[in-house]
Amino acid sequence: MSVLDPDDFKLIHLQKINIRCPRRSCPTMLVAVKRGPTRFLRSKPGGASCSHGVVPAIPPGGGGIESDEHLWFKGRLATICRLLGYEAVIEDPRTKADVYVPDAKTALEYQRWSTEFGTRTFARKLAGATSTIWFVPEAWSRTATKKVRSEVYSRPAALIGAYDNRRKRGEPWTSLRPWENEELNRYARLYVSGTVVNYKHEADEFFTARTDLMQFLRDVLAGTRVWIASVPVQKYGGFETAGGAWVRKTDWERHQSAERARQELWLRRQDELRRRSEALDAAPTVEPETTVDQHPALAEGAEEIEHQVASDTQVAPSQSVPPGVVRIDPVSASAAELPATETITPSLRREPWWKRLAWWRGRL
Question: What is the mean pLDDT of residues 190-211?
Answer without folding.
Answer: 88
